[in-house]
Design brief:
The chain is mainly alpha-helical. The chain has helices spanning 2-11, 17-46, 50-75, 80-112.
Length: 118
């Protein structure tokens, strides 16, 4: 990540760390979200409750879409507007990741208590 930030700063001729901080944050967000997605796929695959699985897949697909958009935007964020879009997408991706994690936590807690998702 740090190498990419340094390389990006040189390529875009950015002078301050503030100008390049967003790319490091975007990279950390992408790595974290892709890790969550990796384990979420396994959880969804082994989940026997079809209703819970279907809703979970909606959240997963939303997170995938935003992660992919963040990835594409962060590679080409040259202008101030591009950087602002990356920062906004980082917030959206973070909220989507929290939604997926929360949905899994709720499902796991609910099923552990003997409940059945309807």
């Amino acid at each position: 990540t740090e190498n990419r930030v340094t390389e990006y700063g040189k390529t875009m001729d950015l002078k301050t760390a503030t100008d390049t901080d967003f790319i490091g944050g975007a990279n950390r967000t992408l790595v974290d979200c892709r890790r969550v997605l990796k384990y979420t796929y396994a959880y969804a695959f082994t989940n026997d409750d079809d209703a819970h699985k279907d809703l979970l897949m909606v959240h997963i697909e939303r997170l995938e879409r935003f992660v992919e958009e963040l990835s594409l935007e962060s590679e080409g964020a040259i202008t101030r507007e591009g950087r602002e879009k990356v920062v906004n997408l980082m917030n959206i991706v973070g909220k989507s990741k929290e939604a997926v994690e929360g949905f899994i936590a709720f499902g796991a807690t609910f099923t552990a208590r003997g409940g059945k998702m309807m």
